[in-house]
Amino acid sequence: MKNQLISTAAGNSVSEVLAALGLENPAFYMFFFGADADVESITAGLKKTGVPFMGCMDAGRLSDNKYFLDTKSISAMALSRELFEGMAFETVEMGSSVARDTISHQSAEALKKAAEKCGINLDNPDMERDFAINILYGLDSANSFLEGQAVAGMMLQSVGGSSGGKTDFVSSSVISHLKSGSIGIVGLFKLKPQYAFIMDRVSSFEALGGKNLVITELKGPRNIQGINGNSAVDEYCKAVGIDRSKLGPQTFADFTLGIDPGDGEILVTSIMAADNSGSGLLTYNDVIEGTEFTVYRAVSQRIDRQKMLEKVKSKHAVGYISFDCILCYLARNTLNQVHDIASLYGEILPSVPKIGFGTFSENICGANINQTETFIAIYKK
Amino acid sequence: MSRGKVHELLNEVYQYKNINSDNGYAEAKQRIIRIRLSLATGISMKKFTPDSDDSDSDVERIVSALKGEEFGLQGFSFADALKKY
């Protein structure tokens, strides 16, 4: 799909995809690809173009009006120089050997450096034109990276996601023209005055009711041991009304935890599994002691997404970049809703180039969240 | 318990940061503050309204989070703001 400012393409090799993109004067590329795609050749092929790029391996991806759940295909987007007054990219090492404080500090410094390069005032960013996109290494926590950004410039609006791959959690590369591997990359952008963006998040849950689950004991930022003074597993089972024998991925996907900042959407923290002791719960997101979670039940993704896409449509978007939780991809697959939801994008934004990937956590404005789609759409004012 | 104390404290913070006027940017910035506060405290900011009975411990948690570097409130007097209500 293509307009004068943005083009998208999908395929199985970097040369095929680059040829299909065919946009004149690209400012940068986004590339998302399956776990069996050849990362080396994708990176080498993109470097040859001399155009900046950012992207990652994933477990599912969006290209225009279609979701891909295979492990080889590539989904790509080219964005024209015509859109941007400035842009800068910086990377941060995020592997497991790097301390969280170091990631946080380096992320703050990276953002400041990028802001200086493209003339963005982090204390008072232009809320219509200045934004950041983060692609983060998905096998480590994104929280410290995002916390660093919040310290450097809390008011800068940012969006993005953590890379994925196969569910063996062995490999999950982030790629860029600067560096690739277990890194986080931030792309900072200033749109030209005639363009603006809309950034938001959408999940599909309803509050279950009953009392909140207050986190009373943690054994690490992603291991909840105690809820309301009792065993985390027991309290969760009581809240959702199931026997502990029913605990499993489906239950955790159906009944999730969240807090509500009061902006019309919740901040979701999903449960990954019960821990080895059988009494604690492992989460996909960092949690702090004292958190007062509401329990939410998953509902169909169609209505909420439709509302959000209609909002984007009203702005006459020229491009749409989606960071949609891999659990949402899998839920659509399980519920046979893959075509139904993909077709929504086609029905409501038929000629808008779209790209996205299934994230191992998605982020927006410094928040690392789960089971949500975060997105940015660019439009002409 | 204090009625609407957190709501009023946030209004003071918005005023201090000059994001209390009725325009789209102010709304977007207030939204970011509420998201970051929810994350920093683990409390749903939605529960704080002009009429909510806010517990002392919730107020303390909110104040403690707002004193964090990221909120940029180093020159803001919490004591003065809280005294008003």
Radius of gyration of chain B: 12 Å
Considering DSSP H and I runs of 4 or more, what fraction of the residues of chain A is helical? 25-40%
Number of helices of chain A: 9
Q: Can you count the helices of chain B?
A: 4
Structural class of chain A: alpha+beta
Shape of chain A: globular
Q: Uncertain runs of chain A with pLDDT below 50, 5 residues or more? A: none
Calculate Rg of chain A over CA atoms: 20 Å
Q: How would the blueprint of this fold be written?
A:
The complex is a heterodimer of chains A (381) and B (85).
Chain A: E1 6-11, H1 14-21, E2 26-34, H2 39-49, E3 53-58, E4 61-63, E5 66-68, E6 74-80, E7 84-93, H3 100-117, E8 130-136, H4 143-153, E9 157-162, E10 174-176, E11 183-191, E12 195-202, E13 205-207, E14 213-218, E15 223-227, E16 230-231, H5 232-240, H6 249-254, E17 255-259, E18 267-269, E19 271-274, E20 281-283, E21 292-298, H7 301-314, E22 317-325, H8 326-334, H9 338-348, E23 354-359, E24 362-364, E25 367-369, E26 373-380
Parallel strand pairs in A: 2-3, 8-9, 22-23
Antiparallel strand pairs in A: 1-6, 2-6, 3-10, 4-5, 4-23, 7-11, 8-11, 9-24, 12-26, 13-21, 14-15, 14-21, 15-16, 15-20, 17-18, 17-21, 19-20, 22-26, 24-25
Helix pairs in contact in A: 3-4, 7-9
Chain B: E1 2-3, H1 5-16, H2 24-41, E2 53-54, H3 56-66, H4 78-83
Antiparallel strand pairs in B: 1-2
Task: Report on the architecture of this protein.
The complex is a heterodimer of chains A (381) and B (85). Chain A is 25% helix and 38% strand. Chain A has 381 residues and is of the alpha+beta class. Chain A has two domains: 6-202 and 302-380, no CATH class; 205-298, no CATH class. In chain A, the strands form four sheets. In chain A, strands 13, 14, 15, 16, 17, 18, 19, 20 and 21 form a nine-stranded antiparallel β-sheet that branches. Chain A has a six-stranded mixed β-sheet with strand order 5-4-23-22-26-12. In chain A, a hairpin with a 2-residue loop joins strand 4 and strand 5 (66-68). In chain A, helix 3 (100-117) crosses helix 4 (143-153) and helix 7 (301-314) runs parallel beside helix 9 (338-348). Chain A starts with 5 loop residues before the first strand and ends with a strand. Chain B is mainly α and 85 residues long. Chain B has one domain (2-83). Chain B is built from four helices and two strands. Chain B has helices at residues 5-16, 24-41, 56-66, 78-83, and strands at residues 2-3, 53-54. Chain B has a two-stranded antiparallel sheet with strand order 1-2. The longest helix of chain B is centred in the middle third of the chain and has 18 residues, at 24-41. Chain B is globular. The N and C termini of chain B lie close together (12 Å). The chains are: A alpha+beta (381), B mainly alpha (85).
